[in-house]
Write a structure and sequence with these properties.
Rossmann fold; four-stranded parallel β-sheet; 4 strands; globular
Amino acid sequence: MKIEKIIICGAGTMGNGIAHMFALNGFQVQIYEVNLQNAQKGLHTIILNLDRQIKKGLITEQQKAKTISNLQIINDARELNRDANLIIEAIYENKDVKLKLFK
């Protein structure tokens, strides 16, 4: 199976870092975060990290733009891509929240 579409559940430190790397490498990534403020914070962190990569000469502005275009913030599970090839759970360590995610 070829992986092309990815869902990352959680936009915190791990989630946004994982989403960043997949999107930078050309994958279509949905970041699922029920708290819209946390989702926006995660996206902001990705943009700051991309800017750092540009300053270090690791990526170009074009790569930054392409990476951002590969990202989509979702806060309603009904909007998630049902054709996703890979789902990664990266939500904070709360057993009840994790169990609710997988129901």
